[in-house]
Amino acid sequence: MGHLSTHVLDTMHGRPAAGMAVTLQRLDGPVTETVLSLVLNHDGRNDGGALLGGQTLVAGRYRLLFGVAAYFRGLGVVLPEPPFLDEVPVDFGIADTEARYHVPLLVSPWSYSTYRGS
Asked: What is the DSSP code (8-state) at residue 117?
C-alpha cells in the first residue's frame, strides 16, 4: 500500500531535526489546501508515521513546507534578518497511489537537499 513520509536531518549539528515545524499542502491549480501541520519528533519524523496513506493518498501535486529558520533560531543559531533560508518548500507530484513516496530533507541554515527515497 502506498504512503507519503518525510524525515529531516540537521546537517549543521549532525542529528535529526527534532522540533522542526512542517506543513503538508495539496496544490490544485491556483488553490493551495493545507492537509496537515506537524512538529517533527526526536528522530526528525512524524510521530504518526506516514503523512498520507490508504484512502488519504490521492494522486496530485503537493508541497512540504519546512520551517528551517525558526528551527535553527530555536536552537540558538544566530541568523541574519532576513535569513538566507526561512521556510523551504519542496513541491512534488504523486502519480501512483500504490507507491511509497519518502521526501527526506537534509538542511543547514545555508543549504538543503532532497530526493525521492523509499
From this structure: B
The domain of 63 spans 3-114
Separation CA 54–CA 70 (nearest Å): 32
For the cut 90, the answer to whether the pLDDT of residue 74 exceeds it is: yes
Q: Do 101 and 3 meet the contact criterion of CB atoms below 8 Å apart?
A: yes
What is the separation, in whole angstroms, between the first and last Cα of the chain? 13
The CATH number for 33's domain is 2.60.40.180
Q: Is residue 92 exposed (0-12), middle (13-18) or buried (19+ Cβ within 10 Å)?
A: middle
Q: Give residue-wise pLDDT tens across range 2-23.
A: 999 999 999 999 999 999 999 9
User: How many structural domains compose the chain?
Assistant: 1
